[in-house]
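Narrative of activities, Objective 1.

The group set out to show that a structural description can be obtained from nothing but a protein's sequence at a throughput compatible with the screening campaign. Below is one input-output pair from the validation batch, recorded exactly as produced.
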Amino acid sequence: MTITLIIIIITSLISFNVFKKNELFYKYAYIPYKVKIQHDYYRLISYIFLHADLPHLLFNMFSFYMFGELLEKQLNLSYGHFLGSIHFIILYFVGALIATIWPYTRNSENPEYISVGASGAVSSIIFASMFWNPTMEVGIIFLPFYIPSYIFAPLYLAFEYWSLKRGKSNIAHDAHIGGAFFGIAYVALINFDKIKLFIQLIF
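Output recorded for this entry:
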């Protein structure tokens, strides 16, 4: 069983359990104010195992599966099963930690802000996968065509930034951007040739 599937199973089981227990939701959700005031540092990682509802869980885990399975196999082929797995785990869990930084700077004084979901970690995996495979074609639900990664990735980041500045949704666009940049930076660290190819394809 792949690490991708193990994470999906664990996340789904915890999320389903917390759907029914509101007190656990607030105990383990990411609340920057409580991280700062109460030093609840466990929230920096526990939040990725919680989701607001079933559609939120399904969307994150489906996206993670589609990109994670491919990237995990490619990392294992390039670095061997042990080191490849380590790289993948770092991308997911450190990506989740990095994704909390920008929301923290914007909301550490706001006791009303709350965030859950693995989208920051998933964003790290998605962007690492796209930069690892810059010519891979990426599809969007409800659109009848595919877009190469080297075009899709910049457009998606621009959309996330525009959505963040627009500020009219409950989606943590800042976490998505943070996770994405970590995924890109980690690929640059372990295989800079992938980044060079990505840039060459753009220009």
